[in-house]
Specification:
Elements: E1 2-9, H1 13-24, E2 29-33, H2 40-44, H3 46-64, H4 78-89, H5 92-102, E3 106-109, E4 113-116, E5 119-122, E6 125-134, E7 138-140, H6 154-157, E8 166-170, H7 174-186, E9 189-194, H8 205-217, E10 221-224, E11 228-234, E12 237-242, E13 247-250, E14 252-255, E15 259-261, H9 268-271, E16 275-276, E17 279-280, E18 293-295, H10 308-322, E19 337-339, E20 344-349, H11 352-355, E21 361-367, H12 372-375, E22 383-389, E23 395-402, H13 405-417, H14 422-426, H15 439-442
Parallel strand pairs: 1-2, 1-6, 2-3, 6-18, 8-9, 8-14, 9-10
Antiparallel strand pairs: 4-5, 5-6, 7-15, 11-12, 12-13, 16-17, 19-20, 20-23, 21-22, 22-23
Helix pairs in contact: 1-10, 3-4, 3-7
Bound molecules: flavin-adenine dinucleotide (FAD) and nicotinamide-adenine-dinucleotide.
Length: 443
């Protein structure tokens, strides 16, 4: 039996944030990982996706400037792009494990199973700790339909050696729209099936429709009120029967209908940790129903967005709580979110549907396409909705559709969280001409 102060199950961004911060505070920590060190984000999520997306962004910029300085737009070379992506993903697991070891954190390889509230078993070896943090993340949900074994997931997409001629994505959420855009821009024929008429339902409806229209113009074929009823393999392709009984033929079919928490197989029911199909139940201190066991990140039942910076935030919070430097309940700042497609759609704080009836707020709808920042790159689809509290003048929410949406929304996030009033913006001198210097035109 090995004994440490704190065991963390899962080495994703959440688990690692907790591990490093706790070790820095002098705690004896061990991290258990059953798969790749570093978890979803750097191995099969945000980072490889952003490497592929970087090429699409470059191509988009050139497409906008076709006949304005560029005669042609180069095609994406998928295998070269994948080789480039692998220079990022291949070293991740080894480097992440080495980083933990160098920080004095014990690394344990294998699947953790609880024996009791202080003991886990990994590969027949028992480990004991005063406190245990569950940070096991999520995995893709697979629709339970005939032929479901033919489904692939985002992980398979991000490892595709060759670009298929024809691809079907089931689901119209973050993953589907980001990967469908990468595939269509790289030359595939892409179909997206969505079971109602409102994809990206957490985002502003009007700007989502503008995004979908743009993605349609780029070649993605959307099938609304449709899902996959069955999939069968025939020779070198798949037949996908849709809800309407239409049959689509494709070389690969990806299920992107959401993700489910990794909670089964931990023996949680035996030790009294409550969970549902949505994840582990925690209180406002991220404490489970067993008082020495905590949980964080994607595996939580909570309604917080399932994003890398949210998991890391919760990891850092738990490190402060468990090292005694903080006792308060967790308090989240406004959390921004983004779809990395063409163009980007990002938002923070309140959005249109939440303020329409409320006299307290006013909303500006702005077409930014004629602003120099966008016009000099010949970018034609740039829109923003900005919501302000009438009494205080404080920004309370914003949605932006455009190539610079990430920069603008990050600035807005800072302004909302720090309660920056418009006068303060005009007291600053920013680099010109940039997205940041545009802020003074908004006020
Ligand atoms: C395709 C894709 C793109 C994404 N893009 C973005 C993005 O652009 N921006 C963003 O913010 N977020 C993005 N996300 C979400 C982001 O990856 C997750 O929110 C983040 O990784 C969650 O971190 P986590 O630590 O909670 O869990 P994870 O990163 O999932 O880590 C959990 C770890 O626990 C391990 N584990 C599970 N069970 C056990 C066990 N019993 N024993 C030991 N180890 C176990 C797993 O192997 C895994 O390594 C994306 C996700 C996907 C799939
Ligand atoms: N840029 C980012 O930050 C980013 C990128 C990718 C993933 N993520 C994270 O990963 C999570 C999972 O992404 P996701 O795209 O798998 O889930 P999601 O919940 O965003 O989207 C799934 C979509 O599939 C639809 N759907 C469900 N069942 C269906 C069916 N039977 N047929 C057709 N459509 C169906 C849902 O209505 C939903 O719109 C996200 O919620 C997010 O937290 C974040």
């Amino acid at each position: 039996m090995e004994i440490v102060e704190i065991i963390i199950i899962g080495s994703g961004p959440g688990g690692l944030a907790a591990a490093y911060d706790l070790a820095a505070k002098g705690k004896k920590v061990a991290v258990v990982e059953t798969d790749l060190w570093g978890g979803t984000c750097p191995n099969r999520g945000c980072d490889p996706k952003k490497v592929l997306y970087g090429a699409i962004e470059a191509q988009d910029n050139l497409t906008q400037l076709k006949h304005h300085g560029f005669e042609t737009v180069p095609a994406i070379n998928w295998s070269e792009l994948m080789t480039f992506k692998e220079t990022f993903t291949q070293p991740v697991s080894g480097e992440q494990q080495q980083g933990l070891i160098s920080a004095g954190i014990q690394t344990i390889k294998g699947k953790a199973i609880f024996k009791d509230r202080h003991t886990i078993i990994v590969e027949n070896q028992e480990y004991q700790a005063d406190q245990i943090i569950i940070a096991t993340g999520q995995r893709p949900a697979i629709l339970d339909i005939p032929g479901k074994e033919n489904f692939e997931t985002s992980t398979d997409f991000l490892n595709m050696k060759e670009l298929p001629e024809k691809i079907v994505f089931v689901g119209g959420g973050y993953i589907s729209l980001e990967l469908a855009n990468i595939a269509t821009s790289s030359g595939s024929e892409v179909h997206v099936l969505h079971h109602n008429t409102r994809p990206l339902k957490g985002f502003d409806e009007e700007l989502t429709i503008a995004l979908i229209d743009n993605l349609k113009a780029r070649g993605i074929q959307f099938h609304f009120n449709e899902s996959a009823e069955s999939i069968s393999k025939e020779n070198d392709h798949y037949n996908i029967v849709l809800t309407s009984k239409e049959i689509l033929l494709a070389d690969r079919v990806f299920c992107a209908t959401g993700r489910i928490p990794n909670v089964e197989g931990l023996n949680l029911e035996e030790i009294g940790v409550d969970f549902t199909h949505k994840g582990i139940v925690v209180n406002d201190h991220l404490q489970t129903t067993v008082d020495n066991i905590y949980a964080l990140g994607d595996c939580l039942q909570k309604n917080t967005p399932k994003l890398t910076p949210v998991s890391s935030f919760e990891g850092s919070y738990l490190a402060k709580l468990l090292s005694g430097t903080l006792q308060e309940a967790i308090h989240y700042p406004e959390i921004p979110t983004i779809i990395f497609s063409s163009p980007k759609l990002a938002q923070v704080g309140l959005k249109e549907g939440e303020v329409l009836e409320n006299e307290k707020y006013e909303q500006q709808n702005i077409d930014l396409s004629q602003w120099f920042t966008y016009k000099h790159l010949n970018e034609s689809l740039v829109k923003a909705k900005i919501i302000t509290d009438k009494d205080t003048g404080l920004l309370v929410g914003a949605t932006v559709l455009g190539n610079e949406a990430e920069q603008l929304i990050n600035l807005f996030t800072l302004m909302i969280n720090q309660k920056v009033v418009s006068d303060k913006i005009n007291e600053m001198i920013m680099l010109y001409p940039t997205v940041s210097s545009d802020l003074s035109y908004l006020y």
